[in-house]
């Protein structure tokens, strides 16, 4: 996962990119970077950590020019190092090119081995650099032609931004796995992983970039071309379930509204007698509100998250953990004591979080803890950029629901059905199916069925 943002034709390009990256911070906390272009002269600054740690006012002021792209990184392929921080920048026969990528290439390993055998030298371990090499080797002076040709060789998920000497190019993979939206701010065009960044900078949403579409923004305005002639929409459902911000809209659906609906459906599928419903902050609050509304049980803030724990947070030692030092999350004793609690979480991956929260609620006096998960069991890895780890680490890949219940210590446990999840998208699904004759969403982490081929060699490198 990562967040990307781009802006063209604005005298405050870098400053607005900085604010937009702030809005996209939830998509990656490991590094942040901005590259600006001042009539073909490129300026860049990037660093490890949060946007607020990486940029100071004077650094933003030094990023001159009316066009910029920015990136926040959450590493899936490639170690977390400054070298891998994006945007990447390179010079080639077609001029300067900066690149920011959200997604994961599922044949990067294979392509990289091929390129290395032919003499290419890589500076990073990130899959994104493979795209840069392919562009440089494509041999066209026109950057969009080079981008188009190289994308034909790449498989996987990509919402990518390219800043060339005199244009900004935005592309989305043929399945539209990762979100990417287009907006307008006075005379400038903006592109963002999520629409919440448009609200932050006062831009207006125009439309989503279509799967397999390349948008070229230059001094003449905006043009659209197809990178792939057979787009088959498979937008990641996990963006709605966990990853995206609730105030963002993806493909016309508001993330909070979808989560609330998932919670309602969960209440219909897995009702239980209880006194209060609570959600694990922040990503499960919308689903918990939906569950409570449907079940007619009061929704309460039973768990509180400390928002000020950053990267430098020192994990408490085992001894302190045992003594109950709970800095990240705490139960509200007065809310849960003596109550039968329904605890909603959006997903169980390894099973660690749910187990900890169940015991926290019991220690705070809850008489019963019923866990309800607003997505189906995660049984398969994600190869497209969500860090849900290798199959063996996914608790639902080897344990039954009853075994997981026992593992997390809940009184009862129920997941939303796949059918229930997909029904939530039904109206939208209908519209997409008509246009593209396809399923509309990627739910590979729940089913093991993926919208692209995944090269065996790459499979191993992606499952860390
Ligand atoms: P686990 O403790 O491994 O079962 O992870 C489940 C918890 O992590 C849930 O509370 C989710 O909200 C959250 N979560 C789900 N997917 C991810 C992810 N890719 N990265 C970080 N947290 C996640």
From TrEMBL:
Residue ranges of domain Glutamine amidotransferase type-2 in the record: 2-220
Catalytic activity, reaction form: 5-phospho-beta-D-ribosylamine + L-glutamate + diphosphate = 5-phospho-alpha-D-ribose 1-diphosphate + L-glutamine + H2O
Pfam families registered for this protein in UniProt: GATase_6, Pribosyltran
Record-annotated active site: 2 (nucleophile)
Keywords carried by this UniProt record: 4Fe-4S, Glutamine amidotransferase, Glycosyltransferase, Iron, Iron-sulfur, Magnesium, Metal-binding, Purine biosynthesis, Transferase
Protein residues bound to Mg(2+): 283, 345-346
PROSITE patterns, alphabetized: GATASE_TYPE_2 (PS51278)
SUPFAM superfamilies associated with the record: N-terminal nucleophile aminohydrolases (Ntn hydrolases), PRTase-like
InterPro entries: GATase_2_dom, Ntn_hydrolases_N, PRTase-like, PRTase_dom, PurF, PurF_N
Enzyme Commission number(s) from the entry: 2.4.2.14
Pathway the protein contributes to: Purine metabolism; IMP biosynthesis via de novo pathway; N(1)-(5-phospho-D-ribosyl)glycinamide from 5-phospho-alpha-D-ribose 1-diphosphate: step 1/2
Gene3D superfamilies: 3.40.50.2020, Glutamine Phosphoribosylpyrophosphate, subunit 1, domain 1 (3.60.20.10)
Cofactor binding note: Binds 1 [4Fe-4S] cluster per subunit.
Aminoacyl-tRNA synthetase among keywords: no
Cofactor: [4Fe-4S] cluster; Mg(2+)
Family the UniProt entry places it in: In the C-terminal section; belongs to the purine/pyrimidine phosphoribosyltransferase family.
HAMAP family: PurF
Function field: Catalyzes the formation of phosphoribosylamine from phosphoribosylpyrophosphate (PRPP) and glutamine.
Stated name of the protein: Amidophosphoribosyltransferase
Gene (name only): purF
């Amino acid at each position: 996962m990562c967040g990307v943002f781009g802006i063209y034709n604005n005298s405050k390009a870098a400053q607005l990119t900085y604010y937009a990256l702030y809005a996209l911070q939830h998509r990656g906390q490991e590094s942040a970077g901005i590259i600006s272009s001042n009539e073909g002269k490129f300026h860049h600054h990037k660093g490890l950590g949060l946007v607020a740690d990486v940029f100071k006012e004077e650094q933003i002021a030094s990023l001159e020019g009316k066009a910029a792209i920015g990136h926040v990184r959450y590493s899936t392929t490639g170690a977390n190092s400054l070298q891998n921080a994006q945007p990447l920048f390179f010079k080639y026969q077609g001029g300067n090119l900066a690149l920011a990528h959200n997604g994961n290439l599922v044949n990067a390993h294979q392509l990289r081995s091929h390129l290395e055998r032919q003499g290419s030298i890589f500076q990073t371990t990130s899959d994104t650099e493979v795209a840069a090499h392919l562009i440089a080797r494509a041999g066209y002076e026109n950057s969009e032609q080079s981008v188009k040709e190289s994308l034909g060789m790449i498989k996987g998920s990509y919402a990518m931004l390219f800043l060339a000497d005199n244009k900004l190019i935005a592309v989305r993979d043929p399945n539209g796995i990762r979100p990417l939206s287009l907006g307008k701010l006075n005379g400038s065009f903006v592109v963002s992983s999520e629409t919440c960044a448009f609200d932050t900078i006062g831009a207006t949403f125009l439309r989503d970039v279509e799967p397999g579409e390349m948008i070229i923004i230059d001094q003449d305005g905006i043009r659209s071309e197809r990178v792939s002639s057979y787009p088959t929409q498979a937008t990641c459902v996990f963006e709605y379930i966990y990853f995206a911000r609730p105030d963002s809209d993806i493909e016309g659906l508001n993330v909070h509204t979808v989560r609330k609906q998932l919670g309602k459906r969960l209440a219909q599928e897995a009702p239980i007698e209880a006194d209060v419903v609570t959600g694990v902050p922040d990503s499960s609050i919308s689903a918990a509100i939906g569950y409570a509304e449907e079940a007619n049980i009061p929704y309460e803030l039973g768990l509180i998250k400390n928002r000020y724990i950053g990267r430098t947070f020192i994990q408490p030692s085992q001894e302190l953990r045992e003594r109950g030092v709970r800095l990240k999350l705490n139960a509200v004793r007065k809310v849960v004591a003596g109550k039968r609690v329904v605890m909603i979480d959006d997903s169980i991956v390894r099973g660690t979080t749910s187990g900890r929260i169940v015991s926290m609620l019991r220690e705070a006096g809850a008489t019963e803890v019923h866990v309800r998960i607003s997505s189906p069991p995660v049984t398969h890895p994600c190869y497209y950029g969500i860090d849900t780890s290798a199959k063996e680490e996914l608790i639902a890949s080897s344990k039954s629901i009853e075994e997981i219940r026992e593992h997390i210590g809940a009184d009862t446990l129920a997941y939303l059905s796949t059918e229930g999840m997909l029904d939530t998208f039904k109206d939208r699904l209908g519209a997409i199916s008509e246009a593209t004759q396809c399923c509309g969403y990627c739910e590979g982490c729940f089913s093991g069925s993926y919208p692209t081929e995944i090269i065996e060699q790459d499979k191993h490198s992606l499952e860390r």
